[in-house]
Every structure is written in structure tokens, then in C-alpha cells.
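Regression test case RT-17, inverse folding.

Input:
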């Protein structure tokens, strides 16, 4: 076996390796939960589809409002400490969720859970930066993302025999199992040795830190990154609906696209991270992301005018291009969001940056369904042009007009 190939999937430092294992435990629980959540909501809590949608939408809004304040809390009291507390809070919320009854209790628990869920990714990025050296930061984040994809799959597979029993207590056990993984993750996070520590230089309140954010260039970059993050909705909503409603490809092509995306993400995320080890490479990654996502849209448009076999091939090609765009967007945004964030406000800045993808999750499904798909092949063509231009503009906005924040510090 080629040991060099294997080593690129292992973080260089013990703290990074521990964090990657923590991410695996966390994601196994999340995959277990996601596989059975829809059935749990309906058969155990007794919700209608509309009530589930309302609850999740309200939770998403709560997360959007809480992300930046919780990032500021991370700056004030330490990103790792805040992340540990959020993991424990998620465990408490999921334990409560296992026993709620009716839509009101569901919405209440979902709001508390949504506030914590949205703040976890930026604080995770901040903690990873504290456990790695600068040259290993993006690669470690890529390893964590790869591990999480593997964990989601393992968790989903674990749910299959449990779901087959079709029991209320089995569904509750799935939710409680997710809660247990958060407790385990919190315990491992608390023991991680940080390579670097940053003490807050500004003894200001959390509220004042949030209200005082005035870095408009960083906000523009965050917004453009949110547009590039549309790949998430294209995969989960756009490709399935377009395949079924507007192409002659068989419905069986839909799960194949998901498998192709997951497999490519696991295999290629770490190798792709090498491009973003420099500032110029990160900007190039965003340009490539825009081009790949634009190509994906062109292929989807063509699939709407092709026969069954050609349409299927075009859908698979579109999935490959979408995945490449996803990988380039991820590594480029990781490095740029970190480079331009001041050391003592890194949690706040990274949380602000995460608002772009969060807004995409709220607005993206409506844009894709009511806009792009409804307009047909021309809609995909317009979206492709927008994504290409967004990648180019993102690279330009992130150009070093001013010297980027030094990377000698941590979160």
C-alpha cells in the first residue's frame, strides 16, 4: 500500500487527529438521526409535513440570528470551551426532542437546537486552527470534512435495521443515540491540547462586538460565498426535481447522483486542499468553483432536451462538475475566511462568514424550484452564468488590496 497516499488523510499533529476522530463520532450520530428523523417526526411526535416544515424553518431562522453572537462568545471565552458547551447543549436538546409531543413543543426544542447547530461549523473551524500549524490547517479541515462524510454514511447504514422494527421506542433510541455522540464528542474536545491560544485583546461585551462589525469587504466575500454554496441545494433539490419532472432519465438516476457526489467528496477533498495552501491558490479555487458550477448548470439544461440515456449521462456529468465546484468552493472559502479574520475576533468573523451558506439554505430551495426549474433550460443557463461570474468576482474581492491578517496566530 502507498503509505504516502494514506498519510495525506491523517492530520500531522495529535490534536488534529483527535479532532478528526471527534468529528467521526459526531457525524455517525448525525447520520443515524438524519436517516430516521422524518419518520420520527411523523410517527412518534405526531406532526404533519407542514408542521415539520414550519418547525425546521423557524429553527433555521433562530440559527441565523444566534450564529454571530455565539461566535463572539467564542472570542470572549474561548472557541474550544464554547464548542464543548454547544455539544452538551445539543445533547440536552436531542434528549428533550426524543420525548416531545405535538407541534408547539417541537418548535420550542427546534429553536433551541437550531441556535446551537448553526454556530458549530464556524467554531469548529476556529478550534481546528488552534490545533494545527498554518500549513496544515486547510488539509486538516479537508480531512475533517472527509471523515464527516464517512460518518454520515456509517450512521445512515446503522439506522437501517433500527428503522425496520417500526417502533416508537426505536425511533426515540435513534434520537437518543445522537445525543450520546454529542456527549462523547464534548468529552474528547475538552481533552484536546491546543497548539496555540489567543487571548482577547479587546475586553468588550459580546453585544458590542456584534453591533460593531463594520468589515464590509469581508461581508461581500461572505455573501458571494453564499451564492457559490448553492451547490448544496442543487444537489439536494435541483437535480432530483429536475430529473423527475423535466428529463427522460429514469428516477433511479437520483440516488446514483448522491452516491457519486459522496464518493468523490471522500476521495478528492483532501487532495483538493493542496490548492488552497496559499492566498493565490484560494482565490483560484473560487474561480474554478464558479466555472465548475456553471458547467454543471449547462449540463443540467442539456439533460432537459435529451433522450433517456443521454440525459442520464448528462446528469452524472453535471453531478461530477457540481462536486468539483463544491470541493473548490470549500477549500477556497476556508482559507480566505481565516486569512482576513483578526486573531482576537476570529470566532465572530468566521460566524459572519457562515451566514452566506446559512442564508442560501433558507433562500436556495425557493430560488431553485420557483425560479430555475420553473424557467426550464434557460433558467439553468442563467444560473450558470451567475455562478461563473460569482466565482470570478469572489476571487477579485479577495485579492490582497490590503495585507491579509497574519496567520501566525490561532483561534
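Golden output:
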Amino acid at each position: 500500500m502507498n503509505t504516502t497516499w494514506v498519510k495525506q488523510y491523517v492530520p500531522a499533529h495529535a490534536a488534529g487527529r483527535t479532532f478528526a476522530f471527534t468529528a467521526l463520532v459526531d457525524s455517525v450520530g448525525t447520520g443515524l438521526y438524519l436517516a430516521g428523523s422524518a419518520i420520527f417526526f411523523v410517527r412518534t411526535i405526531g406532526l404533519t409535513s407542514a408542521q415539520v416544515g414550519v418547525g425546521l424553518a423557524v429553527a433555521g431562522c433562530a440559527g441565523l440570528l444566534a450564529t454571530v453572537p455565539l461566535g463572539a462568545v467564542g472570542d470572549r471565552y474561548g472557541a474550544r470551551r464554547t464548542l464543548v458547551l454547544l455539544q452538551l447543549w445539543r445533547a440536552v436538546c436531542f434528549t428533550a426532542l426524543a420525548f416531545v409531543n405535538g407541534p408547539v413543543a417541537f418548535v420550542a426544542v427546534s429553536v433551541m437546537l437550531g441556535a446551537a447547530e448553526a454556530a458549530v461549523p464556524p467554531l469548529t473551524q476556529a478550534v481546528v486552527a488552534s490545533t494545527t500549524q498554518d500549513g496544515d490547517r486547510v488539509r486538516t479541515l479537508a480531512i475533517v470534512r472527509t471523515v464527516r462524510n464517512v460518518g454520515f454514511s456509517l450512521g445512515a447504514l446503522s439506522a437501517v435495521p433500527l428503522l425496520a422494527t417500526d417502533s416508537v421506542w426505536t425511533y426515540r433510541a435513534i434520537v437518543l443515540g445522537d445525543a450520546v455522540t454529542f456527549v462523547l464528542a464534548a468529552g474528547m474536545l475538552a481533552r484536546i491540547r491546543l497548539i496555540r491560544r489567543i487571548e482577547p485583546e479587546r475586553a468588550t461585551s459580546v453585544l458590542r462586538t456584534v453591533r460593531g462589525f463594520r468589515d464590509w469587504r469581508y461581508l461581500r466575500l461572505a455573501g458571494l460565498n453564499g451564492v457559490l454554496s448553492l451547490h448544496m441545494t442543487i444537489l439536494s433539490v435541483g437535480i432530483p426535481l429536475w430529473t423527475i419532472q423535466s428529463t427522460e432519465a429514469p428516477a433511479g438516476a437520483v440516488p446514483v447522483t448522491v452516491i457519486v457526489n459522496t464518493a468523490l467528496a471522500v476521495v478528492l477533498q483532501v487532495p483538493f486542499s493542496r490548492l488552497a495552501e496559499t492566498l493565490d491558490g484560494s482565490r483560484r479555487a473560487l474561480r474554478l468553483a464558479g466555472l465548475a458550477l456553471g458547467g454543471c448548470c449547462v449540463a443540467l439544461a442539456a439533460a432537459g432536451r435529451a433522450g433517456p440515456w443521454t440525459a442520464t449521462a448528462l446528469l452524472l456529468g453535471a453531478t461530477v462538475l457540481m462536486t468539483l465546484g463544491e470541493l473548490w468552493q470549500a477549500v477556497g472559502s476556508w482559507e480566505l475566511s481565516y486569512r482576513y479574520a483578526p486573531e482576537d475576533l476570529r470566532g465572530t468573523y468566521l460566524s459572519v462568514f457562515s451566514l452566506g451558506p446559512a442564508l442560501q439554505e433558507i433562500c436556495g430551495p425557493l430560488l431553485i424550484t420557483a425560479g430555475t426549474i420553473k424557467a426550464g433550460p434557460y433558467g439553468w443557463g442563467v444560473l450558470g452564468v451567475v455562478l461563473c461570474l460569482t466565482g470570478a468576482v469572489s476571487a477579485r474581492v479577495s485579492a490582497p488590496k490590503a495585507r491579509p491578517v497574519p496567520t501566525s496566530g490561532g483561534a
